[in-house]
Design brief:
Helices cover 30% and strands 22% of the residues. By secondary structure, it is of the alpha/beta class. Bound molecules: flavin mononucleotide.
Amino acid sequence: MKKIGIFYGSSTGVCESIAEKIAEKLQIASSDVNTPDKISSMAANYDVLLLGSSTWGSGELQDDWYDGLDALKNVDLTGKTVAFFGCGDSSSFCDTFCDAMGLIYEGIKDKGCNFVGRVSTADYNFSSSVAVVDNEFIGLALDEVNEDYKTDDRINAWIESIRPSI
Ligand SMILES: Cc1cc2nc3c(=O)[nH]c(=O)nc-3n(C[C@H](O)[C@H](O)[C@H](O)COP(=O)(O)O)c2cc1C
């Protein structure tokens, strides 16, 4: 069984509750669900990293991810499996929807990990996002502001898509 760790950044609790929901569905212990300040001390312990961030400002990382991403860049990620999830607002911030997922991906894309969990953009209404790579979201984009009724189905489909790899 691969060891899975979740690291999430959340300013008002939305991405935190998504992280907890994903953990529950994958039966990940709460001790393996942490904020990015724990990356330096804990990330090396895991085979699989599920990385979550909300997006703030105009397409910026959630605050905890500034240091978190620097820390992640210093972890040996070779051979690890990585998947992303993010929370945003596709209506008010349609030009920067869930950008933070893309920013984290940009920061670690050359570190030798195996990225899983891309999601089709077809079910979303937005204009642009740096989380879109080769016409797909690099991870699970969620919009609890406008489309919370879609969240459970989106999480379930994403989990099924990554399950064979984790
Ligand atoms: C000031 C402000 C800026 C935001 N900027 C963005 C943005 O650029 N892109 C986006 O998708 N969502 C943006 N959002 C929406 C948040 O990402 C969304 O509310 C999210 O659910 C917050 O999650 P959290 O509580 O885990 O931090 C913004 C929200 C606020 C209040």
